[in-house]
Amino acid sequence: MDKANGTNVTIRPEEAAFFSGLARDWWNPKGPMASLHQVNPVRLGFVRDAIDAHWPDAARAAKPLAGKAALDIGCGAGLLCEPLARLGAEVTGVDAAADNIAAASAHAEAMGLDIRYMAGEVGGLDIGTFDCVTCVEVIEHVADKPAFLRDVAARLAPDGLLVMSTPNRTAASRVLLVGAAEAVGYVPKGTHHWEDFITPDELTALLGEVGLTVTETRGIAWRPGKGLHLSDDMALNYILSAKRA
Predict the structure, then answer these.
(1) How far apart are CA 92 and CA 60, in angstroms?
(2) What is the tens place of the pLDDT at every residue in 193-229?
(3) Which residues pair with 244 in a beta bridge?
(4) Three-state SS for 27?
């Protein structure tokens, strides 16, 4: 709890500083964030399917989020915000690292996209509610997960859609996502702390405590010849959609 303003501080300062240090290379598909560029199309496939299922009238439309407001929490330099904007949404991106927000703003401007970016904790920003809220690869970096999810739920409109993704806490993820991936440079050293990972059952329960119900959960898996893809295998990473119960 931040005693100065009475809001929960859920993001560890050292985590924000770590990712802030990667800001200038965030959009380099061959740089230290290459893994995010590789997984982003897989996430986007799930997001689009979730949008079509949640708003059937907009299914197969080129801009299914037209007229809707979207929020990406922990947006980094905007890898998900920009596709959401291209789907028609009025997009806000929030990140605890000011350097990420600066990089995101500069890239959006260069792409001709009007995206509102804000630095800070989502719970401490007066930004209202959103039809679509995304939060990908963030909760594993959060110190107080229940408090963070209360803040996330507070940003979701009554008929809103939430999409979250995160690594699973399994023996396989300890070996591959933390050990091997960092050893070979697939992700920067220090990106992941296995003990902070959360299982699908744990996340589903925590979402239930803040009034949200999970509508679908899929694994994000990898195999030779196919690469990263949506799967029933959740041993490494998973992505889910949720709505108000």
Answers:
(1) 24
(2) 788 899 999 999 999 999 999 999 999 998 888 889 9
(3) 212
(4) coil
Give, as one character, the DSSP assignment of residue 181: H
Strands 116-119 and 130-136: unpaired
Q: pLDDT tens for residues 80-127?
A: 999 999 999 999 999 998 999 999 999 999 999 999 999 999 999 999
Q: pTM score, two decimals? A: 0.86
CB-based contact 8:1 (threshold 8 Å): yes
The sheet with strand 69-73 has its strands ordered as 116-119, 90-95, 69-73, 130-136, 156-167, 237-244, 212-223, 227-231
Give the tokens for residue 167.
Answer: 């690594």
The angle, 0 to 180 degrees and rounded to 10, between the axes of the packed helices 200-209 and 145-154 is: 60
CATH class of residue range 13-165+205-244? alpha beta
- Three-state DSSP at 67 gives coil
CA–CA distance, 72 with 161 (Å, rounded to integer): 12
With 0-12 CB in 10 A as exposed, 13-18 as middle and 19+ as buried, what is 25? middle
Distance CA(135)–CA(176), nearest Å, equals: 23
CA-wise closest residue to 36 among 87, 96, 76: 76
Q: Crossing angle for the helix pair 98-110 and 13-20, nearest 10 degrees?
A: 40
